Each structure stands twice: as C-alpha cells, then as structure tokens.
Predict the 3D structure of the following.
Amino acid sequence: MKKILFKSLYVLVTLLSLAAMYLFFIFNPNDYKEHIIKYVSSKTKYSLIINGDIKASYYPDIKVLVPDIQVFNIPSSSHKQSVASLTNMKIEVSLIDLSLSVKKLMNKMIDVNYIRAYDFKYYGINVDDVLMKTYSLLNFSSFTGADKKVTNIKNMSAKVKVIEDNMMISDIYIETETMEARGNGSIDILTKEAEFIFIGKIKPYEKIISLYQANYPVELVNEELPMVVSGTLDDISVSIDLNHIIIKKIEPIKEKIIDEIQDKVIDELRDKIKLPF
C-alpha cells in the first residue's frame, strides 16, 4: 500500500513539475494568438486585430499583456469601421482563482480579477465634448468641440465577470481628457446592449488639454457628475446630469431677484400711501 501511494505521489509530482517547466520555459501564448482572435471574434461578432506579441508571466499571479489591439465592426462590405483601439491591455488572474477556473468554465463563467487598458480610444462619441457642451448650456456660452467623435481614455481599470452571455464589469475607473470617473455596468454579449452608471469628477485645470482649458468648467470643480452610458456598443449614448449644479447656480439668482422685487414693491407702496417710515 505504501509503495502504491509513493508511486502515485511520485507520478503526480513529476507531472506537476513537467507542467510547470512547460508553462514557464516552453509555453508561448503567441502560438495560440490566432485561436484567441477567432474565439473572441466569434463571441463578440467584432473583428479583432492584435498587432504585437502577447507577453505573459505566471508567478505570483498570472499576468498577460496584450499590445496594440484594434476592434472593428465585421463589415458587410470591404470597408471596416473602427469601434475601439488601445495601446496595451493588462489582464491579471490570481492562482487561487485559476484553481477554480475549470469548474467556472464548465458553468460558462470567466472571472478576471483585474484588467487595465492604456490609451483606449472609443470611436463614435466624444464623452468630453458631451460634458463641455452640456456645461456650455448651463453657462450660456458656446463650445465647438473636437473634430472627431472619439473618446480618449488615458487609463481604465476594472474587474470582469462573464456568466454565459452576460459580461458584468465592476470597480471601473476611467480617466478621460477632462475627468475621472468610477462606476459599474454590464454588456449583453449577444445583443451588444450596454449600460453603465458612473460618478465623474472634473480634473484640475493643469491636467487637461488646451482645447478644454479654454472653456474650463469652474462651476463643476469638486462636484459629483452622475453619468449614464447606454445603448449598443455600436451606438452608445451618454447623458450627464447637471441638475444639482443648475439648482445651485439659479438659487442665489432667484433669491436676489425676489429680494429686488420685494424692495421695489415696498418702495412703491411707500410712495402711494406715504408711510411715515
């Protein structure tokens, strides 16, 4: 019995050692890059291009760095329409979570405890322009905006969990040209319907580009800016709620007008009835 147990343990240790040696010294994720691209494209219905080499490290946690990614609509004609692009994407999964991944995959679950993207561009809408144009209405000013409908996200991080065809994204942090925001949301992988709720804050004047410095929204500094991002990934809409800012701005004006009206009425009454005071 002891010999059988010893042999079984020996075989297990040998297999684990060989697997570790293969993973650390032989395995190259770029050998499977085309398979990864095909799988992601089939699931998302988007055309994916990875222009650089995928880099991976496996200890203490598994980290994968994917460079120069471009995402396109799968074209009905020869013309490709850009959806998004990013310089680098970093994915991190803890070894403890990985030990549970077989069970999760059997239940159609994918759990990524950290994902980060750098220089991420989303084509179709410019969130910073939406904010500045909304602010210009509040401030009774005009704002032309950028020429292109592209949101430049300098930095983005989040946790991602996929259960069947639903992608749930939590602990989101994004930094655009004018603000930083945190929130949560979800994407239906089949329909591409997305809904995100964020609370944003304006960045300091010196940390934004000159286009927006010229119209810096002073009244929005240190204010929470509730945002809703919704629609299909091909046609996202962004709404920013500035009602609480409007109330703050109008209330003093309203009180001043009321006081002026009251003073004028009292003066007129004094003249008419000749009050002795």
Summary: The mean pLDDT is 75. The first strand starts at residue 46 and ends at 50.
